[in-house]
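Working notes for the structural subgroup meeting. M.R. asked for a predicted model of this chain before we commit to crystallization trials. I am recording the input and output together here so anyone reviewing the notebook later can reproduce the run.

Input as submitted:
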Amino acid sequence: KAKRNPALTLMPLSFASILGGMVTMIGTAPNVVIATYRGETLGTPYTMFDFAYVGLVVAIAGVAFISLIGWRFIPSTAGNQKSSNDFEEIKYVANARLVEGSIILGKRLNELCKLCDEASVYILGVMRDGELFEGSRNNLLLRSGDLLVLEGGAHNIDQFVVSTKTKHTTAGDREKEIGLQSLAEIVVPSDSMIVGKTAITSGLLSHKNTALLGISRHGESIIDHVRKTPIKVGDVLLIHGNSGDINDVIEWLECLPLAQRGLEIPERKKAWQAIVLFALAIIISSLGYVYLPVALSVVILLYLALGIVPTREAYKSISWPILVLLGSLIPIGNALNDTGGAATIASAITSLTEGFPPVVILAILMIITMTLSDVLNNVVTVLIAAPIAVGLAQQLGVNPDSFLMAVAVGASCAFLTPIGHQNNSLILGPGGYKFGDYWRLGLPLEIVVVLTGVPAILFFWPL
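Returned structure, recorded in token form:
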């Protein structure tokens, strides 16, 4: 509506949401891990809002920087491939088959110019008997069974298919006559089941009767072999399937819709029950009566018992790979403590920074943690850095909370790469960004975080 390049909005939105998550214990995974680790090593875990003192200062400073100055660092070329004011103008390559009754049967390509202009669609070529005739062959006579290779926006392609009475289909050898009624644009997050797979190997058509019509990657259309192209994180997919099943397909793919789709609105009574139960859990845990994970576990059980969340949906929402990862890495973090590895690394850092005041070492620890988080999972970063932080504090004879907070802030602020945080991965395709676009805004933002985070830690968690 504002006729702005989405690239100017999506990256600031992603970074702002990351900053906002630092304010509470449950806002971001590193805070949860840090709180748990403190309970194991120092006796008592952090409470819900212990992170708010530093997190709020950093979040306000970061958002203010992004809003006033930082957005100017976003490359002017990002997202410009489409110069779009909404996602409907993202270009896709799709296919339409000529069937009996198509109004363009018997016509030549050069006779379709008016129809293409009206629908804002470009014909890249015609596929016939496995041979591709490029769009420049304007005198080619169209016949039943020909496959038009189209490029255009999702709704433009749909308009062309309807007006010409052709049929949406796929470019594969194996087709099924399925009732295709709805188009949907979806973005592929990092935890989607289709990442690394193709439309064929995922069984999208064979299992779900849904066709993959096009892929938009970094703002560019993928033209050839759409069904055989491995899907990557951040890709925007154009799928076509039965309107009654399209939402289930999106859920099955574990993707997110770009446009609003018909979601089931929960009952108002259950919605209020969910809000009240969650609020009670936060209040009770904040007052120190119950440990937050215990309170939230009880809330989940109540959600299931009251039918607020279906059991099947609750099971599907569990990220099993993350649980396995944590289960594998937590013993490593414990081993660093038990074997003296953390103390050894802390001693090495202390030796390298001999003569430096503790505040400088604190800043160095935050920067190192921040850098690791840009290339590693932020939970992994915390599990590695937290024991070292406590070891450093013990070596220097200072407050370990100061160093744990530095790790929490550093691990949460992954702004240099699209792989540092799932939010960054999610906007990669829709924003038309390239891998190297993130550091232009991310680097100065990380500098702002260090410049505001270190003084805030010293004030609220003094050495």
